[in-house]
Amino acid sequence: MKEFKIAFVTILMVSLTACTYTERIKDGKTAYARKQFKVAIPMLEDEFNKAKDSQIKGETAYMLGESYRRTHQIQSASDWYKRAQTQRYAKDTDLKYARMLQQLQDYDEARRAFQSAGRYAGNVRLYQEEMIACQKAKKWLSETKQNLYKVTSLGTNNAATDFSPVLYNADQLIITSDRAESEGKENYKWTGEKFFDLYLLNLKAETVERFDAPFNQSFHQGAPSFGKDQTSVFFTQCGSEEKIAVDYCQIMFSQKNGDTWSKPTVVDLGNEAQNYIHPVLSEDGKMLVFACNKEKGFGGYDLYYSIKMEAGGDVKWSEPINLGNKINTDGNEVFPFLDKDTLYFSSDGHIGMGGLDVFRVEKKAHKWQTPQNLKAPMNSGGDDFGFILDRLNPLPEGSIQQGYFSSNRIGGRGSDDIYTFQQQIPPPADTLIPVDTPKIMLAINLDGLVKEKLFNEAGNPNSGLSAYANLMGASVQVSSKDTAFTIGSDVDGTFFIRLDTATDYNLTATKPGYFTQVARISTKGIVLNEAHPDTTLQVEMILEKIFTNQEIVLENIYYDLDKAVIRESAKPALDELIVLLKRNPTLNIQLSSHTDCQGGTGYNEKLSQRRADAAVQYLIQNSINPDRLTSKGYGESILAVSCKCSDCTEDEHQRNRRTTFLVLEE
């Protein structure tokens, strides 16, 4: 799901300078380009109604869908994406329309939209995981009453955005909000509302007022985590007093001395040129868990932890450590909450109901187990996040735990609202079944390893293979006839999954900037019994970096003298390219042909163009969309081996006669 989400609830993802641009906006397209979405909407609607050209209507409808989505008006976003879809505007319109339908909990229509998005991309099974998620979400909705959660909207919710509740004491929550009382004269141009500040919510009086602290300033603050005695706080700040083009989000720290909070300082976690958000402090104060969009992570935002180090009165935090591929995905994992050895977090990468879902995962024997989706009614088609447990107040009768979370689900009062929940005690089982001996678990395991190719010359794919290196952060989709799920390769390139018996599986490994690789495995014919209760299969998947606008030589493509006909001996190399393009349906390429220096310049240019055209035609005949292909004959203008023509050896002439392809930038 890396194509989508995490635009608003993470209170970042945009240059604050861009969002406070004050020049007069004259049209909707300009407002949209400057991310002033609330300003853009009425202008774009007027421009859509006046437009006559279908292409302009499609583009305007798409911008309206984006603007409504980014201001969290999901129904309107869905309506405008559908209009853009009818005009076949933009490759991702079907996908974004499907996402909106998920948030609206129209799972049957969303499933059809995902199928349409895959068909448009050239692979009807491309979004199989999302289609299965729609089926599961529909089932979870039907089982809401069985999940023993009682969810209630707080009476303090209003049209503003309220999220990330934190218990300040038994009677008060600290929340993040853009209410009218927020600091600063400027509004956030993205939404037209105030910047986010911290607020004190009184649960008994049902009142909300600004949290009286000096770190509520004229930019975004939110998602705090207080120390055990409430005299220290970590929080997210996006923006700074420095007027620079891009302000990253940082984790800030403030200490309370008496009644006064200190001026916040940045928590040094390493690279400043990335976003650190949503801190949560462990109960003993020695570990900080947070989200970060490091380039070497598994996807968008991953969860990390850092250990407190004290020496000579100075406090430092260790280099962030990734929580690993059991928790992190190629999507976004954000808003962590710790409860001893249990971690709650929100994710749009694990299979869920749409948007962010809340997950629970336990640590046993120092290892994280498989995250569990809390399902409906805790989760919904919208964003569900900012989960916390209430350990300060007595449990209501019949409950085993209680707490709070935030959501922009259907039926809320604002963009995001605060909800309280109680998990009820499950009813007693009708009968107890005695267990005499433990049942032996029969299991088929898959140990996987993802590697990448390394070349003799870094950045030159024509220099020859030198070695392989284990590759972290690749996404491996595992799909069968009935199921689909995705797991990331861990820091050492490994991944581990449990397989069903008598099942054929397709494995698809992807990583941004790399060509997709596939593999097939089967558990058919594997017999397990008490004497042989488990077995392990192994698979290795090798990815290769994509070098855009750089020619890659296709080996063994030769032509007869003065001919431009694809020989049988050349077809295997072109067939491999066809497979590559089908596995990577978003890539566009240029096929090029080069001659040696023998013959006239004009003759060589025409001959090479005919040969490049023949190679393109061969790909088209094998079901590659012609819109993805271009051809170019260079003649003798770019020689692989530079030599005086009369002195070139036949081997040098042969190296100059070549067919290449290059991946074009999108």
TrEMBL record:
Record has Methyltransferase as a keyword: no
Domain OmpA-like: 546-666
Keywords noted in UniProt: Cell outer membrane, Lipoprotein, Membrane
Domain of life: Bacteria
KW Lipoprotein (keyword) present: yes
Subcellular localization: Cell outer membrane
GO CC terms: cell outer membrane
UniProt xrefs under PANTHER family: LIPOPROTEIN YIAD-RELATED, STATOR ELEMENT OF FLAGELLAR MOTOR COMPLEX
Protein name (record): Outer membrane lipoprotein omp16
Organism annotation: uncultured Aureispira sp
